[in-house]
Specification:
134 residues; alpha+beta; Ribosomal Protein S5, domain 2; four-stranded mixed beta sheet; 32% helix
């Protein structure tokens, strides 16, 4: 039985459920290149979101980092923050997309990542209409 939790992210109540499962990860370099080259892109200061439709009934996401993004500790922390941000907003996203959430160094707090991801998803039209964020 999956628990539904409620957290505050950026001053808003966000409900999230479950985990970030193995099938939701984009792992193969070929998939990353395909999304970078043929996917659509939206960007704001400090982050970009590449996305494209997939033929699956669920979303997949990857978290690439630009070259020279700090040391290993900073890279791992940035990816952990990004994964947790995705988990918070996962239930509010339309399904059937492959996404890459690219973040740049600086302002690596969890709340700033939440704000960036929300704005990017709104710009891309990936949030469900009935979401609590609008």
């Amino acid at each position: 039985m999956e628990k539904i939790r409620q957290q505050r992210c950026s001053g808003e109540d966000v409900h999230y459920e479950g985990r970030f499962t193995r099938e939701e990860h984009i792992k193969r370099p070929v998939d990353f290149q395909k999304i970078f080259k043929t996917g659509k892109k939206v960007s704001i200061n400090g982050a970009k979101l590449f996305f494209m439709l997939n033929d699956m009934g669920f979303n997949r996401i990857g978290f690439p980092l630009p070259r020279g993004y700090g040391n290993a500790v900073q890279r791992n922390r940035a990816k952990r923050c990004s994964r947790e941000t995705y988990r918070f907003y996962k239930s509010l996203l339309n399904t059937g997309y492959d996404m890459l959430f690219l973040v740049y160094p600086g302002n690596d707090s969890f709340l700033s990542r939440c704000d960036q991801f929300k704005i990017l998803c709104q710009k891309a039209g990936l949030l469900k209409d009935s979401g609590t964020l609008q």
